[in-house]
């Protein structure tokens, strides 16, 4: 069984499409179609083979899972999460980060005092947002992921400036 930390979420089956077993996949890869060229697995680490059929107007992918040939089988896949192994990702430059690598990083203020942790990175269509859980208030807040709020980002922490 794979170690949960080794699996990176890359997409989810949102619905069945048509009668021949196609599904709609919301991909979190850029571009979205990259998910069909990656070695992807389910949450148990079982290999998934995807065939790209089309891309719809919302940017979601119409795909077929290997072994799925009708709508009933495709409907059973709704909500199925798709992962890949972290080691299959390309190596990045020094100033580039994968979203997964930013999660749980310490958030420091400009005096290098730890004030919180990054909980998640979201994108609702207008750019990436970082969700921070602050230690002093126990609440979480979203901030635009840009140099104005986060002037320093390392593999160990981020500096938060308000």
Show the helix and strand layout.
Blueprint: E1 7-17, E2 22-27, E3 40-41, E4 47-48, E5 50-55, E6 61-65, H1 71-75, E7 81-85, H2 99-102, E8 106-108, E9 114-123, E10 128-134, E11 140-144, E12 152-153, E13 157-159
Parallel strand pairs: 8-13
Antiparallel strand pairs: 1-2, 1-7, 2-6, 3-4, 3-7, 5-6, 8-9, 9-10, 10-11, 12-13
Summarize the structure.
With 162 residues, the protein is mainly beta. The protein is built from two helices and 13 strands.
How would you portray this structure in words?
The chain is mainly β and 162 residues long. The protein has helices at 71-75, 99-102; strands at 7-17, 22-27, 40-41, 47-48, 50-55, 61-65, 81-85, 106-108, 114-123, 128-134, 140-144, 152-153, 157-159. The strands form 2 sheets. Strands 4-3-7-1-2-6-5 form a 7-stranded antiparallel beta sheet. The protein has a 6-stranded mixed beta sheet with strand order 11-10-9-8-13-12, with no helix packed on it. The relative contact order is 0.15.
């Amino acid at each position: 069984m794979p170690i949960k930390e080794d699996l990176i979420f890359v997409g989810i089956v949102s619905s069945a499409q048509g009668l021949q077993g196609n599904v709609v996949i919301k991909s979190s890869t850029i571009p979205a179609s990259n998910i069909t060229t990656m070695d992807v697995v389910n949450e148990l680490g079982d290999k998934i083979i995807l065939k790209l059929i089309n891309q719809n107007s919302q940017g979601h992918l119409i795909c077929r899972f290997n072994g799925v040939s009708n709508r009933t089988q495709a409907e059973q896949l709704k909500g199925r999460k798709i992962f890949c192994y972290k080691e299959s990702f390309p190596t990045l430059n020094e100033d580039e980060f994968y979203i997964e690598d930013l999660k749980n990083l310490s958030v420091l203020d400009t005096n290098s005092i730890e004030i919180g942790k990054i909980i998640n990175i979201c994108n609702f269509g207008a750019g990436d947002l970082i969700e921070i859980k602050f230690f002093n208030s126990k609440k979480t807040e979203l901030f635009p992921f840009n140099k104005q709020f986060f002037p320093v980002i390392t593999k160990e922490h981020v500096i938060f400036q308000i």
